[in-house]
Every structure is written in C-alpha cells, then in structure tokens.
Amino acid sequence: MRLPNLVTLSIGALLVASLSGCVPSDPALPQPTSTFVAPYATDEEALAAAEEAYAEYTRVSLETYREGVTDPAALSSVASGEHLDELLEEFEERVADGRYLVGDESFDQVVLQRYSRDSSPNEVIAVYLCDDLSKLSIYRGGEKIGPEAPVSAMTMQVVFDLSPDSNTLLVSARDVWSTDAC
Predict the structure, then answer these.
(1) Which phi and psi (to 5°) does residue 46 adopt?
(2) Rounded mean pLDDT, 26-35
(3) DSSP per residue over 118-137, as a string?
(4) Which pairs with CB-CB distance under 8 Å and at least 24 residues apart come from 154-157?
(5) Tens of pLDDT along 41-60?
(6) Does residue 17 sit in helix, strand or coil?
C-alpha cells in the first residue's frame, strides 16, 4: 500500500517542480498610467480654445516677420515641435535675405476635425480653417517683391499640441488642405 502513496507523492512533487517554472519569480511591476487630463470638457470648448490659439499664432507670426525684427523667440510661445523648427529656419532665411511682411492675415470657418481627450498632449486638437493671406505682401528694402497677385484664401489643417508647462495650445502642424477658395 505504500507504493501507491509514494507514486502519488512523486507525481505531485514532479508537477509542483514543473509548474514552478511558469510562475514569475519577481512580482509584476505596476504599469504606468497616463497622467494626461483632457483640458476641455466639450468639443465646443476645444474649438474655442483652438480659435483663440490660432489667433495668437497669427498675431505673433506676423509681428515676428515685420521689418527690423531679429529675434524669433516669440515663436516658441505659439508653436512646437517640427513646426517650430520650420518657422525658426524660415525666420533665419528671411532675415539673411532682408525680406519682411506687410499687411494682415485673417481666418474664419473654423471646424473641429478631432479632439483627443484621452491619449496625450500631442496632437490634442486638429481643425480645418479658411486662411486668408490675400492682404499680405513680401517686401525687401522697401520694395514689394511678391506676390504679384493676391493669394486666394485656402483651407488649412492646423494641429495643436497642449503645452504641459503653460497649459496652452501650440501649433504643431499647419498644412494646406485644399487650394480651392474657401
């Protein structure tokens, strides 16, 4: 009778030994949770914030591209990432070439494309808008060098990141969506 108990005990020990390799030796570390909190309760609030941020972006951009301005630091208060890098590169080229802008830019027909409430502060809002550059001219040394004819208003897609430091929207991308007049 002892043989069946010994066989049972041996099989039990063998099972315990073989299964012990399947159990992790270290306890599982807790997974990091996202700390991103959506800054706007509704799509309407997000759209209003995007409109306000884009108005500030156009104001600062135009001021930075006026005659005699040699410091592009203000651009970092309205743009981020690769788009900011592009603006700074354009600024350096413009200053080196002596070009500046005269006139004004306006926009309207802002439509919310997306508002990401739960992912990250990157690309939190994207909008379509009608950007009117028809009242802008490029000058060098007091002479108008372009454009020959006013530029038609066009539909732009503008993407915003949320700055974690200032809790403000910064333009991270601005692309022509359609060249058809809007």
Answers:
(1) -65, -45
(2) 53
(3) SS-STT-EEEEEEEEEEEEE
(4) 154/130, 154/178, 154/179, 154/180, 154/181, 154/182, 155/128, 155/129, 155/130, 155/131, 155/180, 155/182, 156/107, 156/128, 156/129, 156/130, 156/131, 157/113, 157/126, 157/127, 157/128
(5) 899 999 999 999 999 999 99
(6) helix
Neighbours of 81 (CB within 10 A): 15
- State phi, psi for 122 to the nearest 5 degrees: -85, 135
pLDDT tens string 61-94: 999 999 999 999 999 999 999 999 999 999 999 9
At 10-20, the pLDDT tens digits run: 333 333 333 34
Tokens 């500046």 map to which residue?
Answer: 100
Q: What is the pLDDT of residue 31?
A: 55
Cα pseudo-dihedral 133, 135, 138, 142, rounded to 10:
-170
Strands 143-146 and 125-140: antiparallel
Tokens of 10: 């041996």
Structure-block tokens of residue 178: 């359609």
Q: How far apart are CA 31 and CA 179, in angstroms?
A: 46
